[in-house]
Structures are given as C-alpha cells and as structure tokens.
Amino acid sequence: MKSLKAQVAIIGAGPSGLLLGQLLSRKGISNIILERKTGDYVLGRIRAGILEQGFADLVREAGVAERMDAEGHVHEGVVISDNGKANRIDLKELTGGDVVVCYGQVEITRDLMEARAAAKLETYYEADKVQPHDVKSDAPYVTFEYQGEAYRLDCDFVAGCDGFHGVSRQTIPAEIRTEHERVYPFGWLGMLSDTPPCHEELIYAKSERGFALASQRSATRSRYYLQVPLTDNVEDWSDEAFWDELKKRLPPEHAANLVTGPSLEKSIAPLRSFVCEPMQYGNLFLVGDAAHIVPPTGAKGLNLAASDVATLYKILTRVYETGDRSCISQYSDIALRRVWNGERFSWWMTNMMHDFGDEVANNGLDGQTFNRFMESELNYYLGSENGRKVIAEQYVGLPYEDLKD
User: Quick one: which H or E segment has residue 197?
Assistant: First the structure.
C-alpha cells in the first residue's frame, strides 16, 4: 500500500472541494483531493450559476476571480412574475448595495481546476473505494484505490465534499445522524440552449399552468425550467413543446422576447429539501450536498456549499496559524444556522411559486387550499416594500458568520 500525507484530505472535486483546497493552499495548508469521477465528468454537470455576494468575494479571496469578474454578469435585481404580472425586486437598492453574479458553476469549477493544476497540487481523479477511517481520533486517514493500487492518505482532518450519494455522510454512525427530508410532488424540466436570454435578469414565474424560470449562463446561452409532474419523462417533451409551454408561463412582455432554438441538453430533476445533523463527526466535516440539499427555487444550493467552505476555511486557518483547536467544535453549529436559513427560504419560495395541484401534504391542507394561502402570501410580499426587502436580503445572501473567540 502506497502512503501519502497531507494536513487535510478533501473527498470530492466539485466546486466546494476545489474552492476549499485553493483557499487552504494559499495559506500554506497542504491538501490532497480525491474524486471518484473523471475531471471531464465533473465539468459535464449542468448546475446553477447565481453567486451570492459572499460567494463571489470568497472566489476573489481564493485568487481565481479573473474570469468571473470579466465574464460574469452582475445582476442588481430579479423578476418575480405572478400570473403574468412582472414584479422587479431591486436587490441593490433594497439591501444597501448587495448584488449577485451570474456565472455558471461549470465555469467556477473549470477556473478552480486550472488553478489547482497550475499550482501542481495533488488531485486523484477516478479514485475508487474511498473510505475515511478513525475520524474521531487525532490521526484520521483515508484509504482508496487508484489505477489498481491501494493507497493510504494520513491527515489531520477530512473534508467530505462528495455530495449526497458520497461516502462521507455515511461515515457518521446512523445513531448519531438525524436526517430531515421533504420530497416535493413535482420536478423541474430544464433545457439549455445557445440562445440569448429573454431578459437581462432572472425571471421566476408563477402561473396557473405551473412554475417557470428563465435563467442564463451568458449573453448567448440560456437555461430555462418548467415545473412538471414526476411522472413525466424527458422524451415526452420535444423542443417545440418546451418553448410553447414556456411562453405561456412567462409574463407576456418577456415571452415576446423569447428566442428559441435547438436544445443542448434537457433533463428532469426532482426537488427535495434535506439536512443532515450534525455536519461534523470528530475530525470529519461535511460540506455542501454531503450535508444538505435545497430545491433550486431560491438559488441557494451552491451558495450554501460556499458558506460551509468559508466556515471550515476559517477554522482550519486558525488551527494551523495559532494552534487553537477549540474552534473545531464550532463548525456544525455555525454551518447549520446558515443552512437552515437557506433551507427555509428555498422551501418558502418553492411553496409560493409552484402549483401543488390536489396534493395533500402541507400541514394536512389539500393542495388547492394551500395554493390559495400561497397566492395570498406572494401578493403580500410583492406588494410591500418590507416584503420585497425580505426577499432581496435572502436572495443576495446573509453575511457569513465569524468564529467565536
């Protein structure tokens, strides 16, 4: 068995694992990343691209913001449409200057991969049978197989950035874990196309036909979504049918600007809210989707992963710069406070913007009654300056919490 050593073992080379590795490396903290898929596979994942103010600042601190700042689109507002009536939420004005940046997760991942390769930092793609060991001890280690050979990676800490289906969360004994889950009775049909966006800002559209989202990846590439039943298949939706339905759900003035074209990719994603507590077990820390999943309605998934990274980065920096290990126990509490806030906002937005049909799943209410409550909720928040401010503050993201002294 081959032996490796690093201060931090990072499981998963998605954006959270790569960002954590980049930040730690800039502080002189050694780390090795283990990823079970190929780099091309990781870059092939089509994901969200709205970065909160805090996330964008963290990317700048990591020294990989050059392309984001040059090519990313700063959004000072977001449109929420209620049955054809478009309402703009002025993020910048309502929050005292905060904005979001539209820059695809794939692009962030590519920038981080290139920075890691340029710095010649160790990453093992296609690492098989990855397994953390002795994470409750002061000498944890991770075993894995790479190119047919067995490896042992000794480390001080393990960061589990390996997603919902990864091994990290399962390393925490079941009797210690509490898992909270809400599965929604619909999914999102997403389509990517090389067409200019129908509007310069994102449009969240509630309609009698169901929810729709007009998003974007660049000035020439758009990402659109439709709420669909879980029984639907991608094959049920031709490009023509998708564009037709999208036009019916968007506000008329924006539907008129819709440029159609062939799809580059179509997929259906189920929606769920999920949280694992605690997010820490000894010297193992869960980061991002390994610990929590949000419905994408609030644009919080990638951003919550970034706030986990920010917290863990602060802790590990303090440990190695001062020798103070007492701060380690703060991770789960700090991370979960922000996670639950993001979960609540995403759940709330999902409830307000979607059609629950005849589903009986919300505090015993039938779907139609629940829909009427949510219509009233949306009308109130859009019609009140304080209500719009609540949406704006949550959308741009709350400030990252500092460690206690």
Answer: none
How far is the C-alpha of 15 from the C-alpha of 2, rounded, in Å?
27
Span 102-124, average pLDDT: 94
Active site residue 204: yes
Q: Which two tokens stand for residue 156?
A: 């001080």
Residue 97's alpha-carbon distances to 79, 94, 175, in angstroms, are 18, 8, 45
Which residues in 216-229 are b (16+ Cβ under 10 Å) and which e? bbbeeebbbbbbbe
The model scores a pTM over 0.70: yes
Cα–Cα distance, 94 to 113 (Å, whole number): 36
The predicted structure's pLDDT at residue 365: 75
Give the active site residue among 199, 206, 292, 300. 300
Q: Choosing from 199, 225, 296, 331, which is the catalytic residue?
A: 296
Identify the active-site residue in 103, 331, 395, 400.
Answer: 395
Domains of the chain and CATH, by start: 2-75+99-180+272-354 (3.50.50.60)
What is residue 300's DSSP assignment? -
Please state the rounded mean pLDDT for residues 261-268. 94
Q: What is the DSSP letter of 401?
A: P
Active-site option among 103, 124, 141, 204 = 204
Q: CA–CA separation, 32 vs 16, rounded Å?
A: 14
CA angle 130, 136, 137 (to 5 degrees): 100
Alpha helix positions (H), 207-290:
239-249, 252-255
User: What's the pLDDT tens digit per position in 50-109?
Assistant: 999 899 999 999 999 999 999 999 999 999 999 999 999 999 999 999 999 999 888 999
Q: Residue 61 has which token pair? A: 């601190």
Whole-number Å distance between alpha carbons of 128 and 364: 45
- pLDDT of the residue at 358: 73
- Non-local CB neighbours of 239 within 8 Å, separated by 6+ positions: 191, 260, 262, 263
Pairing mode, strands 100-102 and 73-75: antiparallel
Distance CA 227, CA 204 (A): 11
125 is catalytic: no
Q: CA 28, CA 296: separation in Å to the nearest integer?
A: 35
Active site residue 296: yes
Buried b (16+ CB within 10 A) or exposed e, 311-340: bbbbbbbbbbeeeeeebbebbbebbbebbe
